[in-house]
Amino acid sequence: MRLSGSLWRNIRARGVPSRYLANMAVQRPCHVTVLGEQYPTDHMTNISPTIVSKLPLKLHTQPSHPLSTLRGLIESHFPSYTHLSSLSPLVTPYQNFDLLSFPKDHPGRSVTDSYYVNKDLMLRTHTSAHEVEVFGRGETKWLLTADVYRRDEIDGSHYPVFHQTEGARIVSANSTGMKEIEEDNERLAAHLEQSSIEIEDVPHLSSTNPCQPAHDPKHTELIAKNLKLSLNSLMLHLFAGRVGATAQNPLKVRWIEATFPWTTPSFEVEVFFRGKWLEILGCGVIYQPTLDNANVSNKLGWAFGLGLERIAMVLYSIPDIRLFWSQDPRFLSQFKQGEITTFKPYSKYPACFKDVSFWLPEGQTLHENDFCDLVRDVAGDVVEDVKLIDDFTHPKTNRKSLCYRINYRSMDRSLSNDEANSLNAQVVSCLRDRFRVEIR
Questions:
Q1: What is the pLDDT of residue 1?
Q2: Which residues touch 22 (CB under 8 Å, ≥6 apart)?
Q3: Given the DSSP bridges, would you call strands 82-84 and 141-149 parallel, antiparallel or unpaired?
Q4: Three-state SS at 396
Q5: Partner residues linked to 4 by β-bridges
Q6: How confident is the model at residue 9 (pLDDT cuts 50, 70, 90)?
Q7: Cα distances (Å, whole numbers) of residue 95 to 166, 210, 274
Q8: CB 356: neighbour CB atoms within 10 A?
Q9: Beta bridge partners of 438
Q10: Is there a cis peptide before residue 217, judged by omega within 30 degrees of 0?
Q11: Adjacent-strand bridge partners of 244
Q12: Residue ranges with strand state E in 210-330
């Protein structure tokens, strides 16, 4: 289940220029090695060395890592579900987009948004890339946790690799399947009635959040209710203890109607935590063509998806998403498998700001994600954030100039000005060589 906004980000169209420097005749090797295998490159190839280096790490499987603990907590709440966490991140665009009914012009397909090995192979941008595969092999209740990849800006809450957990349940679209759902709804409702939770709900179906034409509205009502009860119970499991929920001060959860091409009806879930509402996940009744593509046309059900980093940053009070990738013992030693503890900052090293200003080649523009990937390849996680501070078009020559401010700040040690200057010089050199800009 894809996430929107800060959750299901691919639903929000981002402007993709008709001409950008990633498509210039940049020299590239004939082959690229990914997870020990060689693949031919072509005009779509944009996977970077930094991203390739992340592929084997699988933070969600590393014992005691916060993402591993969070995955374990979610899995423990669904003990009867099949738990999957080792599927390859390499998928075809057909798996990632077409089988899930993504429009042909969806911005997520662009090389500015996604990482391609070549035109026929890419890194999954969401766990839903495996939905049809998993349903097709007969799984009816499952959780899938995996690393996913999207080109993105550089700041404290965005990273080109993050982790999602997707959950799904399907049943037969007949009286037997509906009886199974009704019984589960009774069990879950009884549990929630005895719990310290306050739920702000929306209708299971409405004119703005309708039933799919292929579905019986009564069946959809039951499935949507089961989805809500299951996820309200999960929110209770994850957050009630962290907020000290009591009968007088219950955990507050609210449901919001959403619109997505892959589920109908669709919803987002928020939790009131530490004084503000937080988006937690997106979910809905699975779009029937997805099930048809998996050869389970006689089924219907629900799916949800959530980002582990987003929740872990809140539960553990981790301030910077880069920290999840730290190998510093001062970070890793703070955590134990199965326990959520508050992160204790061990340092705050000074920032070192450097500006990079340049003229673009005539008639070209540069996508911000291309610039950020170049910076990551040179400086890695030493860069805390990158901001565009000037976008200027000369009134007479019509030449376009950009200026980015790069904040060099290590999470583990003080970075000298000389080191920052050296890294920035490498960024400038690579920028000139790769994109043929004129440094100002």
A1: 55
A2: 46, 111, 112, 367, 370
A3: parallel
A4: coil
A5: 8, 9
A6: very low
A7: 16, 26, 39
A8: 19
A9: 359
A10: no
A11: none
A12: 251-260, 263-273, 276-286, 299-307
